[in-house]
Specification:
With 198 residues, this protein is of the alpha/beta class. The protein is 54% helix and 15% strand. Helix 1 links the parallel strand 1 (2-3) and strand 2.
């Protein structure tokens, strides 16, 4: 589903999606998009940031309340970290910067669809391993916002999560290949492990 008030952007996205083998549906604003989403449950949603009726942040929040797994890719010309944090807080999964480039977009669609399927499949794994999706998302978003590798202590200081919990969740993320461990060797003592999102 493409939610954007700009007709030429909707046309471009539609052409790119159809070239990649995906059918599309369109909405001219957030409110209309959410209504259509309720009727059709699309597999992936593109949401523009600046729109009449509802802006992108409210639209993302409304869609996320209806569906926990659907990938939501935000379309924006704004690269600011504050905007990114607002969108991730509302439940967005990815960003595509305008002007839109077809190869990048097709790649993002494929990755997001694959991740959504894995996420749905892992719900049962979460129960088995005692992993809470909201806590996992909080830790992942924190790592995403910090480009440099961080120790467990550095992560734990900034988040309302216990040291042991951060440790367990990082091990899980390393296990599924989403986080990399870097060992930093000092002059003495054991190496210090730092974690970075892939």
């Amino acid at each position: 589903m493409i939610i954007d008030d700009n007709e030429s952007v909707r046309f471009t996205l539609k052409e790119i999606c159809e070239y990649g083998g995906w059918e599309t549906m369109e909405a001219r604003n957030g409110k209309e998009g959410v209504e259509k989403f309720k009727e059709s449950s699309p597999e992936l949603v593109f949401v523009d940031y600046h729109m009449p009726e509802w802006d992108g942040i409210r639209t993302v929040r409304e869609i996320r309340a209806l569906n926990r797994h659907v990938p939501i890719i935000v379309l924006t010309v704004d690269e600011s970290l504050t905007v990114a944090e607002q969108f991730f807080g509302a439940g967005a999964t990815d960003f595509a910067l305008k002007p839109i480039k077809a190869p990048d977009l097709i790649s993002r669609i494929r990755v997001n669809l694959k991740m959504a399927k894995l996420q749905a499949d892992q719900e049962n794994v979460f129960v088995d391993k005692g992993i809470n999706a909201a806590t996992l998302s909080t830790i992942k978003q924190f790592l995403f916002q910090h480009k440099e590798p961080l120790t467990i202590n550095e992560i734990q200081k900034e988040l309302p999560v216990a040291y042991q919990t951060v440790h367990r969740y990082l091990n899980y993320l390393v296990e599924i290949g989403e986080v990399e461990v870097l060992s930093e060797y000092g002059k003495k003592g054991r190496p210090k492990n730092k974690y970075i999102i892939r």
